[in-house]
Specification:
The protein has one helix and ten strands, in the order αββββββββββ. The chain has 142 residues and is mainly beta.
Length: 142
């Protein structure tokens, strides 16, 4: 008998393809060298069609006037446990990937808000093919 009563963690069902995509497009998060709190875990969701984020109140839209069209997007939910007088901290990044497998757009969150994680010319800052994201020291905001 299977029940979802919170007594056991959920079993994750993912394919090797999903894990490979999540690793290939994961952001490189830069932390201050004196940052006392680092994330404990990261989850991801791959969107191959428009949909709602499972952990952030917002839609994920693959074709939008605000960014180049994407074949899919990956949401990364980054979790910190109790550390800065919060029960937890959950911030996000989103990587949008075009039909040619290039990263076409990125977004990042801070304290319940989100915005483009792009340079002034609209390009995504990349480090070795991964979106570059900076964490605000002591606050976790991107």
């Amino acid at each position: 008998m299977s029940s979802v009563d919170g007594s056991r963690p959920p079993r994750v069902r993912q394919s090797a393809r999903q894990r490979d995509l999540a690793a290939r497009y994961a952001p490189l998060i830069h932390f201050d060298h004196r940052e006392p709190f680092l994330p404990l875990t990261v989850g991801y969701t791959i969107f191959e069609a428009d949909g709602s984020s499972p952990s952030f109140e917002r839609p994920i839209v693959l074709r939008s006037p605000s960014h180049p069209p994407a074949a899919f997007a990956i949401e990364y939910a980054i979790w910190w446990d109790w550390d800065i007088q919060h029960l937890y901290e959950l911030e996000h990044t989103w990587t949008y990937v075009g039909a040619d497998s290039s990263i076409v757009y990125a977004e990042a969150s801070w304290h319940g808000e989100y915005a483009p994680a792009v340079l002034a010319d609209g390009s995504v800052p990349l480090v070795q093919g991964h979106p570059a994201v900076y964490s605000q020291p002591g606050k976790h905001a991107f």
